[in-house]
Amino acid sequence: MMTTQITDNVAFARLKKLTEKICRYESHRHFLKECVNGEIVPKGLTLKWKMDLHTNEEENGRVAKVLHRTSLHLISEGIAVCDRVLREVINLKQEYSNKMSSSITKNKFEKLQKELEQFSLETQIELLRTKKKKLSVLKKDNTHSKNSLILEDKNVATDKPEVQCYHTGKGLMTAESVHVGADEPEVGSIGSERLSMPTKTCMCC
């Protein structure tokens, strides 16, 4: 009798451990899916660029985008791993459950099942609370990062001067190459030749 009770306790402990593992991997999977859907890459899952090639700001931006996309692809692989582990653990739990149901009374088995369900619910709630806080922080950081990138792109676009082109009979000149002094002709005329003022930026610039 004592041996049977010990065996039942061990089997229940294993079922409880498997139940906890299922909850954890379901939580991992949910968290990773939220990251992919929101294009969020947690700091611990972000790939790094470790080559020192003296890249400039524009190149750093391109590298950052590549690393971000690749990190999201790896997170998707993590979701697939979670799916595989969950299938295996759920099957293993079912095997232990079937063995236990055949070794104890129906009433006792139903009681243990209710205990496992309650334990599973409490574990899920705790994990959900933790991951929800983490996701909230990550979403705020992600929004801030996207806004910063938008501002940087706008600054790059506005900082680049527009070069106006002027065509003469002798070739192409730009406004920068035309220096007007006190005794020199107005912009638009060089000597006796008039420059044709363009209506739009020259396509060759």
UniProtKB/TrEMBL annotation:
It comes from the Eukaryota. This is Uncharacterized protein. The lineage of its organism: Eukaryota, Metazoa, Spiralia, Lophotrochozoa, Mollusca.
